[in-house]
Design goal:
Elements lengths: L4 H28 L28 E6 L10 H10 L1 E6 L5 H14 L4 E5 L11 H15 L3 E4 L2 H4 L17 H10 L3 E3 L18 H6 L14 H14 L5 E3 L9 H10 L3 E4 L4 H5 L2 H10 L4 E2 L12 H10 L24 H15 L10
Parallel strand pairs: 1-2, 2-3, 3-4, 4-5, 5-6, 6-7, 7-8
Helix pairs in contact: 4-6
The protein binds zinc ion.
Length: 377
């Protein structure tokens, strides 16, 4: 019989052999031609310049953009001691969710670290067609406010992926959402809103795309599929519509409103919408690569920018060091902590103390009068 175990094993070994030889040949050719993957290339700079390693901020700071999920259950002592070591006075947990989760989280904070954390409420927009949507949602906001919630966080899913009962995309400027924006204005609680994504996520995934590495590592972030997603301009203009139509409501346009790479546009944006603040979460690398313009921008708009990092528990607390170094020092040519966000180097902005104080805590204290001022010494 032709098919025997022995023949089968021989065939398997033959195939493995071919693969191994091919692999070794490719490896040999790559070495010979001195080629490698872009992710592998990590040259160590030979530049000898001043290095200032800051492990805590010059002034106490308030991080308005965090996702420290353990606020719902843990005793928080670990988190608090990490915060102390960084000089972080207070952290806003934007992922407060709603209902029982929110109540438990508020109770836990009250029990374990009442002065160090605040929560933002999160809503479900996909029930927008329910006949009680408006009354239920407004009641939820009022109740959360009465229990001590500090603001409302709007996730990027609104405008990108949230669908109504017909399966249609819910626009950020949908008129049915207006009572929500208005109520937050009446209650004087800010709305932190992350809309869209970096514009590069809509561009071709080719060698010219600045976020090419990110799109390779996180392919789900690609937005260029027009049958699935709106255009960048659509989403962003819907977001700006609600800023314009609700001038009594304070909005925090997250991640520098994705204009960290165009500070002229961001300046114009802040001039146009006096009810809008912004924050630095996950976009510090945009400032660190243009230290002269970024310094000028932060000096001019020092009262409009809040400190945020977009912390979540998968990250190292040492990533905060890079924030201190970019904002405070005049160091040159140093690394950012995440290659897919910056394959370029950072430069310190050497901000004046008056600007540091605004960004680190003064602006946040103005926005959130409930934060204990004694935390800032
Ligand atoms: Zn975030």
């Amino acid at each position: 019989m032709f098919f025997t175990i022995k023949n089968f094993l021989k065939a398997v070994l033959f195939i493995i052999g071919i693969f191994l030889i091919t692999y070794l040949c490719i490896d040999y050719i790559q070495r010979k031609n001195n080629t490698m993957d872009i992710e592998e290339y990590s040259p160590i700079s030979t530049l000898k310049v001043k290095q200032t390693l800051l492990t805590k901020s010059k002034y106490p700071f308030i991080d308005v953009h965090g996702h420290p999920f353990p606020t719902v259950i843990s005793d928080l002592s670990g988190l608090v001691s990490e915060m102390d070591s960084l000089n972080m006075a207070f952290m806003v947990n934007l992922s407060g969710f709603r209902g029982l989760y929110l109540t438990k989280s508020l109770e836990n904070i009250k029990r374990n670290a009442p002065t160090r954390f605040g929560l933002f409420l999160n809503l479900d927009f996909e029930t927008i067609d329910d006949k009680d949507f408006e009354s239920n949602t407004l009641k939820m906001i009022n109740d959360a406010y009465n229990k001590g919630v500090m603001g409302l966080k709007i996730y990027k899913s609104l405008g990108l992926t949230d669908k109504d009962s017909e399966g249609d995309r819910i626009k950020i400027n949908d008129p049915r959402l207006k009572p929500i924006w208005e109520l937050c204005g009446i209650l004087k609680i800010p709305i932190l809103i992350h809309s869209g994504e970096p514009e590069s996520f809509w561009f071709d995934k080719d060698k010219y795309n600045e976020r090419w590495l990110e799109l390779r590592q996180k392919p789900g972030r690609y937005m260029g599929n027009s049958s699935k997603y709106p255009t960048y301009k659509e989403v962003i203009s819907e977001q700006h519509d609600i800023f314009r139509n609700n001038p009594q409501t304070i909005f925090i346009n997250a991640h520098l409103g994705w204009m960290g790479n165009d500070l002229d546009a961001l300046s114009e944006h802040l001039d146009k919408y006096p009810n809008v603040m912004t924050e630095l979460g996950a976009v510090l690398a945009e400032l660190g690569r243009q230290p002269k313009r970024a310094r000028e921008f932060l000096i001019n708009y020092k009262e409009r920018v809040l400190f945020g990092k977009d912390y979540n528990p998968s990250q190292e607390f040492s990533e905060y060091y890079t924030y201190f170094r970019v904002l405070e020092t005049d160091d040159e040519y140093f690394d950012y902590y995440r290659k897919r966000h910056a394959h370029w180097k950072m430069y310190g902005l050497s901000l004046p103390d008056s600007v540091l104080k605004c960004i680190y805590y003064k602006n946040a204290l103005k926005l959130f009068p409930k934060i204990d001022k004694n935390l800032i010494k």
